[in-house]
Design goal:
- The protein is of the alpha/beta class.
- 51% of the residues lie in helices and 15% in strands.
- The protein is built from 11 helices and 5 strands; from the N terminus they run H-H-E-H-E-H-E-H-H-H-H-H-H-E-E-H.
- Strands 2-1-3-4-5 form a 5-stranded mixed beta sheet.
């Protein structure tokens, strides 16, 4: 219980500090939510969405799951996308993976982790689809990094092919889907070269992103 009590005290300290720094902060936060960004990222505790992109509470709508997957059968993720796009009118969907992802590693190396093995089958499908790229890489760490990147590219494509995003584009709503990978080693985001703002932009953007995936060495 002492661990939980520490969290509660941390919360009180944080709330008091914010109140002192900005007395109107919680009044504003409680009466509005108008984020321009939806972040779809990994559940990994080392990847805090708001902190990574320097945004305050209320500025980013967030969905997280193991290995940042956008599956067409996942009503949880799709419900978040629908609410963000249709109700909040976000302008950007950021699909953000991270290097060193445990879920991607487990899928790549056929490591059983339990019930999540069924979820990670989505990442396994990405690995199978791009086996030619992955099999040509000898360094296991680089192969892992490449699958993190390829997984993001495929999840961007999945999001763009959802009825929610397609319907938004059909009615002329400005919406762009981006693919990023975050590095735990330096705190910086790498762009995957895929930024899709219309159905027509998906295929060329997808092909461009794949062509930019390094076959050797690091992305930068």
């Amino acid at each position: 219980m002492k661990d939980v009590e520490k969290l509660l005290q941390n919360n009180r300290d944080w709330a008091d500090r914010i109140q002192q720094e900005d007395p109107a902060f919680f009044d504003r936060l409680s009466t509005q939510q108008h984020p321009e960004y939806l972040w779809i990222g990994c559940s990994d505790s080392r990847v805090p969405a708001n902190q990574i992109i320097g945004m305050a509470p209320g500025e980013v709508f967030v969905h997280r799951n193991v290995a940042n997957v956008v599956a067409h059968t996942d009503l949880n993720c799709l419900s978040v996308i629908q609410y963000a796009v249709d109700q909040l009118k976000v302008k950007h969907i950021l699909i953000v993976g991270h290097y060193g992802c445990g879920g991607v590693h487990a899928s790549l190396n056929n490591v059983r982790v339990g019930l999540a093995d069924n979820w990670l089958r989505h990442v396994g499908d990405v690995a199978q689809k791009h086996a030619a790229i992955l099999d040509a890489i000898d360094d296991p760490d680089l192969r892992h990094a490449r699958l993190c990147e390829l997984n993001v590219i495929e999840q961007v494509a999945n999001a763009c092919q959802s009825t929610i995003v397609r319907d938004a584009w059909a009615r002329g709503q400005k919406l762009t889907v981006h693919g990023w990978v975050y590095s735990l080693r330096d705190g910086r985001v790498r762009e995957m070269g895929i930024d899709v703002d219309s159905p027509e932009a998906l295929q060329p953007g997808y092909e461009k992103a794949l062509s930019f995936v390094p076959r050797k060495g690091k992305r930068d």
